[in-house]
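Quick one, T. Sequence first:
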Amino acid sequence: MSLLEQINSPADLKKLQLRQLKGLAEEIRQEIIATVSKTGGHLASSLGAIELTVALHYVLNTPEDKIIWDVGHQAYAHKILTGRREQLKTLRQWQGLSGFPNRTESAYDTFTVGHGSTSISTALGLACAGHQEETVPAKIVAVIGDASLGGGMALEALNHAGQLKKNLVVILNDNKMGISRSVGALSHYLNRIITMPIYNRIRGDIENLVKRVPRVGKKLYSTARRLEEGLKNLLVPGILFEELGFRYFGPIDGHNIKEIVYTLRNILQMEGPLLVHAITVKGKGFSQAEQVPEKFHGINSDSKGRVKTQERTFTQVFSEKLICLAKKDKRIRAITAAMSEGTGLDSFAEKFPHKFYDVGMAEGHAVGFAAGLACRGLRPVVAIYSTFLQRAYDQIIHDVCLQNLPVVFVLDRAGIVGEDGATHQGIFDLAYLGHIPNLAVLAPKDAQELELMLEFAFEISSPVAIRYPKDKAPETKNLLNPAYKPAKIQYAQAEILRSAEDLAIIALGSMVYPSLEAARILAERGVGCTVVNARFAKPLDELLMKKLAQKFQTLITIEEGVAWGGFGSAIFSFLAEQGISNVTLKQLALPCTFVPHGDREFLLKKYGLSVQGLVDSALNLKKAKTRHG
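Structure tokens:
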């Protein structure tokens, strides 16, 4: 029986000898590689954190002791060690294991996570809320990567933790890699620490030596402590963490289980906030992932790290068009937050290295920074996933829209993203952007329309947001009448793609082509549908909306976002304000719930955002009208 087959819980792990843990880690590594090659998932991150994970569960008494993972994309080994090995084959599939820690999935998952820079704040809250009745206080450990540590929330939490002096261990998993390569002064600072591990090695020796001096040893040590700050500055860049109130330990080899175990056993006896700096290799044990970890951060089941299609994705269309526009417009600047490859801006960075900024995992700063650029006449593009732009909500309002500055927000992964699940579904942006003054919100139906929308965004002098899904971009020439030519984008103007007399479907972005196909099917069943490509979620084409409401008794809106506060809600509110009440309105949208992980197409069908869902809704409305005369 293999070592891994003996492990059903951390209690089983503790039965192993320390010398056996290295072999166990290698078995876990092979298990993860084999599984993720079939299911897809976050490969490189999990491979780099295996030894840390084994050591933590070996030393801690989980789940009573708490491990809080930052982002959580490195937690596959954690799932295996906590009784979920057999379920791992369902990873990221509908009703299978989440790709991230999830409180509803296991008692060992202290917190449901998926975004970066959150773990220290959460861990500090847990430490401050320790139960008085605990005979042995729970150990609280936050595991955070070097990229996440640069986020504002993490730095705020470090500052607060140092002030409160609660018992808390922060493990800095430093692989010099986030999703894209770590950037910024803090990243360079950590690299300096790696080259100077001398301080913690000699500190204990000096303390023991001085204290042994008869009669005056303790007094000498007290004096030495006052001189220690100067010594630190000479020997260790880790002074940053100590000045924030943390005891700093490291750097240690994050793949040497024996060293990690000894370190944890020693420091867990200490009081106050402690930081252990572990050096790891992202993608450890899988040569391709070690060489290009950013390509293997998240992979599909074909193990190629790319969307499985020969067609261009919306991301690729954006990337190519922005480069084209930047060649003509010298004012364009591109900004992302640790997502240069995911947003397609890596190509822009190669072409225009001095016009590209990766600010690290700091979305709020990215938006504020863009506002400053725009204030001096530049035309910044902020490309961030929809779910992560939520983190910059105040800056969007206060720094950009209140000033009415021409910042272009490009929201990749808008709508259903699929297997990454609830923490990553980009389903709230229409609602959280739709009510902000001065901001236009657009959604393209296809590749050509995205290009037109980017041109439009640089032609006006106010903020614009363009959202599109994680999907291939349809080509207009393949899907519409050859005579169709996409019209230039005009502010707050929709377009009618198909005309008929029974009802109207008003579709936004990714729902336009399904609406056209549904209209074709409905026509075969005797129901004529006008199909409108809204183009703008905000502002609405109010003149067209009034005309449609006056012409048709039934209107259907369809969008890939939550219903409340979304595109359809805005149309309904507008018609109500106009006193138009003699029309039946049907909103097809996602429910106001957290959508779990699963295949994108499956989830769209499940929630009625498909051709068949549209056909069924239209036929049901037609039957209801017939019954009521």
